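Quick illustration, no need to memorize.
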Amino acid sequence: MPPFSLHPVFVGAASAVTAVLLTYLVRAFARKYGFVAKPKSDRWHKRPTAMLGGAAIFLTTLLMYAAFVPKTDRSLIILAGSTFLFIIGLLDDILNIKPYQKLVGQLFGAVFVVGFGFTLPLTGYQLLDIWITVFWLIGITNAINLLDNMDGLAGGIAAIAALSLAIGFAVNGQGAEVLLICVFVGALAGFLIFNFNPASIFMGDCGSMFVGFLLASSVLLSETGGRSRGILSILAVPVLILFVPIFDTTFVTLLRKMWGRKASQGGRDHTSHRLVALGLSERSAVLMIYAFAAGAGLLSLLVSRLEQTQSLALIGLFTIILSIIGVYLSKVKVYEETEEELATQNNAVFAFIVNISYKRRIFEVFLDTFLITLSYYGAYVLLFGSFENTGNWELFLKSLPLLIVLKLFAFLAAGVYRGIWRYTSIGDFIIFSKGILLGSGLSIFAILLIYRFQEFSRAVFVLDGIILLFLIGGSRLAFRLIRELLPIPTSDCGRKALIYGAGDGGEMLLRELRNNPEWNYQVIGFVDDDPMKVDKMINGLRVFDANGSLGDICREKEIQEILVSTNSISSETLKKVRETCREADVELKSARIKIEPMDFE
């Protein structure tokens, strides 16, 4: 048996080097013998790519486990079950077996692991815990399989999740499990050198099934939480570690069901695909999802160490952020509009769901109920620290329902629920402030009237109002913030156009054009007669000088249209622009209210 004192970093590095060598050999083998994935309409890759990369991950994990990891009955059982799933996936890669046959194989693997006593101790009822564990193992295995839809995505997310798991093992003093996971992380890292965009090899079902099952079953080795911390830590920690595949699978399944498509069929409608549709490059989309997975992994470590109510608050906030992102991404068009309409017409239940989703006021009320609770709780925590076992906890519990009712009423009276999120502005923040001030005033008055403010802290209500303003404003600005974090998509086709007027109107027009690609415009830049704006940049586009050089710019950039976005253009300037457009054979349009041709006469 190897010495237990081996450093995990050394073990991971040795595993990564081995994975690089084996992946290179497997890629050569796959290309030579025709194990190649060809491009399809429902797949993302655009060129034939070698398969069976999962064999390199599997072989590396087994070899490094044999060489460096102390053998235990628990780890051997986990590896045996994962090996069986690798064989099932390999059969699918070679023979293309039916989905139900793969499911039966996954069920056999899950039953094998559970049969040796591995369960998630959630309910205290053994039979129920067994079924939950079987569902967990099969669900995560398929989630990783579905996540394998873009270069480097499944392998990278699995590596991040495994690294989070390894840190948890290290904190608990589980040295043998740390080495096992480091071997696994190294195998994934070595494979990613060939799998990251542009990928020269895919892991295939043999890889996604092995990786998914090993991840899901390795969670069962963790001693984090335990019954003493209750169901929250037992369930939340593994879910957060594997948050990205769980979110993506749930998100895609719901939307496919909504539009009448099979959840098991391939498609280009995953989270990663929607981020690319919003304007990110493939690499940037994958890296953004990596960052989200790392954040979820960090949150899992915090949840396992915090008090239960603090963990609940963090998980609740994370869930709200997740829900907002999900709503935003669900609006990204990935199917033809006629397909969506047909699917809605053919399914009355989902048509109702789709129609009701546009009336988000119910969602906003539930969201604000949670934010009011979170801000009030946060104010107590910031002032008094952990207060669950003190008199302040009783004050918090008995006053919370009153605050929720009064503040929701104040929001309604102030007009908070009249706004549209994507157009949230400074004016809306004034409305939010009025609603929060009114709600705080009503709350203080009610507590004074009912409880005579005995033992309540006035500082709590001041701090609560400040926190709530940030939370309400942040939630309403969410869509705009997400849009700002993502690059505005640019079109490389359509009619080449210049926007005349490098001001607020021009910037708004640019966003409208980019958010409506069906208008078929490719904006090249801005033109303005203000010399202070010349050569400046607006959303990545240059401002050109309109004084005397407009014709040359149009010819050099092959401009087809000029869109006037300002009302402040003088009649003399407009006349010169018209003459320039006539000479350069460029169409002139007014876009101050709507895009319409301008008369040259």
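Residues 359-484 form one domain.
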